[in-house]
Amino acid sequence: MSDYDSDLYGGTPPHQSHSETSAAAANDIKDDARTLRFKVYAHIKQCGAMGATDEEVQVAMGLQLQTEVPRRRELVIRGLVVDSGLKRMTRSNRRATAWVVSGAYIEPEDRKKTTREQLREAKAEIERLKVKVAVLQKDLYWARKK
């Protein structure tokens, strides 16, 4: 990845200009921001086409929201991470965007076809398993009768 720090946000991580503590936090993380961006990128890349929500990245990496979201946003600004179009539920029961590295992006039409196909296959497998369960239950019933 290229050097973000010199050309992204004028070299200083984003902060609330009216807040002294926000400016101090931005200054404190300045040296670590590049490494954290790379780690967030690597985690999202590892998740492949399913991507990861901000919350999933935070939990997996042990990061706070205030640390992870700005790093992921910087990746989006650079075009390295994109919205996958997938949404997943958070722990607070809200829909969240799943982020993927730009090369792992699946066009929505392809994703819909894959999802429908996978759903048909899953339903067929469920029906096969129901038949197996019914046969096993019948065998168990007759085995107990003996």
Question: What brief labels describe this structure?
Answer:
146 residues, elongated, Arc Repressor Mutant, subunit A, two-stranded antiparallel ribbon, 2 domains, 4 helices, mainly alpha, 59% helix
Furnish the topology, listing elements before pairings.
Blueprint lengths: L19 H27 L7 H8 L3 H13 L3 E9 L5 E7 L6 H38 L1
Antiparallel strand pairs: 1-2
What does this entry show, briefly?
With 146 residues, the chain is mainly alpha-helical.
Radius of gyration: 23 Å
Strand content: 5-15%
Q: Supply the helix-strand structural class.
A: mainly alpha
CATH architecture of the largest domain: Orthogonal Bundle
| Strands ordered across the widest β-sheet | 1-2
CATH superfamily of the largest domain: Winged helix-like DNA-binding domain superfamily/Winged helix DNA-binding domain
Query: Which CATH class of the largest domain is shown?
Result: Mainly Alpha
**Unreliable residue stretches:** none
Largest sheet: 2 strands, antiparallel
Q: How many structural domains?
A: 2
N/C terminus separation: 70 Å
Rounded mean pLDDT score: 83
CATH domain topology of the largest domain: Arc Repressor Mutant, subunit A
Helix content: 55-70%
Query: So what's the overall shape?
Result: elongated
Number of helical regions: 4
